[in-house]
Design brief:
single chain, 368 residues, mainly beta, Immunoglobulin-like, Glucose Permease (Domain IIA), 2 domains, 14-stranded mixed beta sheet, 2 helices, 6% helix, 48% strand, disordered N terminus, disordered C terminus
């Protein structure tokens, strides 16, 4: 079985199946590697090293896992990279990984079946790009597998070095204690929320269009996504954080609406975030609403885009009335504004690195 690893090479022959190519690897058990014509591949110390493009590895008595991949050509820190993969059949696993310019893994995400396109299964991966990751020339890897067959796609992806605001927030003694004094219940609530946001439910297909703002009318932002916050108490340092959402300054009692269709995963009064609602929109994609004065939904409710979920307030760790609105993708906070008007699934995007589906490749490969 060969799956997502470099292939030891004994004898290499090339057969042309334009616009695709098939590499035949002679081993104790024969293995084929079918590729698109524009792949970047090299031989180093007898090893076949896939550099860029699309590769499909499969035993000679089986058909290759055909695929095509679509993704934006650039992205910014703090956003979500939408990777769409069209396949000849549903994989057992599909995942995406991004490594930074230093070769370190910056982020990874699982994929889920989002529908069909032209009669073939279409899978979607929402890869969260952390606000503190290193920008520059990164490398994207897409992996899918069905039994002994696997697909690998690699490409260069520039990530912008987006800047973020730094701010200092003065806290009273009571707010400092609320944030940092030992409190088992607060710690228990933190673990509960963290565990909830790690849940990846492949069947949670509620919202595939863009989000809408959670409050009506003009909005004044009192804080932004990715703010580098330094807390101080009586002029002394009291900790630092990265702000995971946006703070919208609205009067207490303002109607807060769900930014998209989904299922209420949490509706609870928490120590730090006050009256809190969490809505699940897609597998691993959640919106969060903090500091509300009143909850209007309960856990398990199905909500429509724009449906009220609460009223704004200043419960929990808040220095004034506002709504903290946050979006997390597979446990990573990302910029909520990225999703406004931006479709989560776009079947019109261009697919790259197509492996050919020529009729001759649909026949059994035994004896080739």
């Amino acid at each position: 079985m060969i799956r997502r690893r470099f292939l030891p090479l004994c004898l290499l022959t090339l057969s042309a199946f334009l616009p695709a190519e098939t590499l035949r690897i002679e081993r104790p058990i024969l293995t084929f590697c079918q590729t698109a014509v524009d792949v970047d591949v090299s031989l180093v110390d007898g090893m076949l090293r896939p550099g860029g493009g699309l590769f499909s590895f499969y035993p000679p008595d089986m058909l290759p896992l055909l695929a095509a991949v679509a993704f934006p050509q650039t992205a910014d820190r703090g956003t979500v990279l939408r990777v769409q993969v069209l396949l000849s059949e549903d994989p057992e696993t599909l995942s995406v990984e991004l490594t930074d310019p230093d070769g370190r893994k910056a982020c990874q995400a699982r994929g889920f079946r989002a529908g069909d396109s032209g009669g073939s299964p279409l899978w979607l991966v929402l890869l969260p790009l952390p606000s503190d990751m290193k920008g520059g020339d990164c490398k994207l890897s897409v992996n899918a597998a069905v039994g002994p067959r696997s697909m690998l796609f690699r490409a260069r992806l520039p990530i912008g070095s987006r800047g973020f605001v730094a701010e200092t927030i003065d806290l009273t003694d009571s707010l400092t204690n609320l944030r940092s004094a030992p409190d088992p219940k607060r710690d228990e609530q933190a673990v509960e929320l963290w565990n909830l946001l790690q849940v990846f439910n492949p069947g949670a297909l509620f919202e595939t269009d863009g989000f809408s703002p959670p409050v009506d009318g003009l909005q004044r932002r009192s804080a932004f996504y990715g703010d580098r916050r330094e807390y101080r108490n009586a002029g002394k340092p009291a900790g630092t954080t990265l702000h995971g959402g946006v703070d919208i300054a609205v009067p207490e009692g303002t109607t807060v609406r769900s930014c998209g269709k989904g299922r209420v995963a949490m509706s609870s009064d928490r120590i730090l975030t006050g009256n809190t609602v969490v809505v699940e929109h897609l597998p691993g994609l959640y919106s969060l609403y903090y500091h509300m004065s009143k909850l209007l939904v309960k856990q398990g409710d199905l909500v429509e885009k724009g449906q009220p979920v609460g009223l704004s307030g200043m419960t929990g760790l808040a220095t004034g009335p506002h709504l903290h609105w946050e979006v997390q993708a597979q446990g990573v906070p990302v910029d909520p504004d990225f999703f406004i008007g931006e479709p989560l699934l776009d079947k019109g995007e261009t697919l790259h690195g197509i492996i050919d589906t020529e009729p001759s490749l649909k026949e059994p490969l035994e004896g080739r």
